[in-house]
Automatic annotation (TrEMBL), chains A, B:
The keyword Acyltransferase does not apply. Coiled coil: none annotated. Keywords: DNA-binding, Transcription, Transcription regulation. It comes from the Bacteria. Gene3D superfamilies: 3.30.450.40, Winged helix-like DNA-binding domain superfamily/Winged helix DNA-binding domain (1.10.10.10). Residues 108-289 form the IclR-ED domain. Pfam families: HTH_IclR, IclR_C. This is IclR family transcriptional regulator. SUPFAM superfamilies: GAF domain-like, Winged helix' DNA-binding domain. The keyword DNA-binding applies.
Length: 293, 293
DNA sequence: GGCCTTTGTTCACATATCTGAAGCAACAGG
DNA sequence: CCTGTTGCTTCAGATATGTGAACAAAGGCC
């Protein structure tokens, strides 16, 4: 895994809401999860872990959720959920309907979560760089960070002309399916890559790279050239170019441009690519000079 | 006991941290059940409450925080903090430095918190309306929501021309000091207003309204006219106009335009105001038709 | 280096949470 | 109106957490 000197727990892959637990809850309940996997989900303060796991459940489920929904999703006993939900609601991190029986994410989560952006000394510089970039090339520009097998969008400056934004601050996409992600993955050593990539490379479109070997050689090429490109791999009719901001080793952050897929020539893609690489390099120098890493 | 001079080696003693032992759980929602006893700070699942309170501490403190910093800030025993911090770190909601002794907010908080935006059925409509508005009048436009005595920015479309954004998704400002907030406060009944406003109306600039009576009469005027204006009350050299999106009663959401303060005439302010009111009304009708409330 | 202060970590007991099962409340179908 | 179903709430015992105090480690100051 990318060693940035920042340690944070590895994401224990939580599945979709279809995650049904109660196949056979009778009797012995869910006995200790098989110790096959090293990362035990039983360490630490139970209620604290459960509280944030609940928040994450709300984060990936945009409807009202009932106690029973959450029971199926998390596997926590209904009675335990009862207490947790009321607690989280009382502090404003989740909201309930009038009956107090359906829940969803609250504003506090937004307010607190977005503070991540203020906390990061990179952001002011990145924002400025994005604006320079957008003004130079006119396309929508993104700044994103690698988080495990995904990229997280941190900031966007939209095209002066085009319709509307594709992404949003805080949204994640599988790294292997985006120009941003491929640029960042290309920074990893072979075994780091293996460790980070999910078992199955999910396809966002028909063109998404889902073959590990194909991905590996693509990454090697990107590493050589210094920027990555992509046409319709993350979204139909969208072309993207991205370059790592090399102020850390391995790099964790990257910048990209998105443009309407059909109307963009290969030559244009390359032009933007090398420009992007230059802007990213400038930004890196600024950051290093400012002692940020 | 840190009886005097809590000089704490590093410069961590930032302003926000002055909140010494025994932090009160500042009442979040206006709907709050009558706090008969100090029960609200001791009810519910202790570790869960502490976990999110910790997250909020990180949300309002953008430096690395040590265990001792957090002890002073939250009043939780050091030994309890130890476990909580490790737990939160293991699940990725906070990050620690290499030594594992300083902490700050993690990416998970951003990812999960911003999901609030996806969860809200109003957002797609609001975004579209913002874009129409921006294209019509050219200024930077915001969509925000009232949360207790504050407004929270939910979405922004920036001016095609001006320099850079003043605000950010998820940021909060005191309602009484902004056009957005004044528009929303004008929806409240007199006693609701009293209940919501903080004891002391803090001033963001010299022009911020800090007198409750002055604010009340301003709100009455706004209620009549259907939109609010403001010059330099939230930020020097910035003028703002805002109108409530009346799809709920009382309204909770509003739209605004921000423009460079010096160059904008009063007439322009009013022109934008009535235009804004119209767009907000259109949006409301859309929302009501879509069954959103 | 020696001493002192500050900060992080560990431990065993007191205490609060977690939990399964039982108790209700709401609702649909006959 | 009764009855079965589903889902939320409550309760007392089993269990895991919270806590103060002791311990260890890091750093500052002569």
């Amino acid at each position: 895994m990318a060693d940035t000197g920042i340690s944070s727990g590895s994401a224990v892959g939580s599945a979709a809401l279809t995650n049904d637990v109660d196949a056979d809850v009778s009797g012995a309940s869910a006995i200790g999860t098989s110790p096959a996997l090293g990362a035990d989900s039983s360490a630490g303060v139970k209620s604290a872990r459960r509280a944030v796991e609940l928040l994450e459940a709300f984060g990936s489920n945009h409807d009202w959720l009932s106690l029973t929904d959450l029971h199926h999703y998390t596997g926590f006993p209904r009675s335990s959920l009862h207490g947790l939900l009321r607690t989280l609601r009382d502090v404003g991190w989740i909201e309930s309907d009038d009956a107090g029986t359906r829940f969803r994410l609250g504003v506090k989560a937004l307010i607190c979560g977005t503070a991540y952006l203020d906390r990061d000394p990179v952001m002011p510089y990145a924002t400025e760089a994005l604006e320079r970039l957008r003004d130079q090339i006119g396309y929508t520009c993104h700044f994103a960070r690698l988080n495990g097998p995904d990229i997280v969008y941190l900031q966007t400056r939209e095209s002066r002309t085009s319709a509307h934004l594709v992404s949003r601050v805080g949204r994640t996409l599988p790294a292997h399916a985006t120009a941003l992600g491929k640029a960042l993955l290309s920074e990893l050593a072979d075994d780091e890559l293996t460790a980070v990539l999910p078992k199955q490379l999910t396809a966002l479109t028909e063109l998404t790279i889902t073959d590990r070997e194909a991905l590996r050689s693509e990454l090697a090429f990107i590493r050589e050239r210094g920027y990555s490109t992509e046409r319709g791999q993350s979204s139909p009719n969208l072309a993207c170019v991205a370059a790592v901001v090399p102020y850390r080793i391995p790099g964790t952050d990257a910048m990209s441009c998105s443009m309407p897929g059909e109307r963009v020539t290969d030559a244009e893609l390359l032009r933007v690519g090398s420009l992007l690489r230059d802007v990213a390099e400038d930004l890196s120098q600024q950051l290093r000079r400012a002692g940020i890493r």
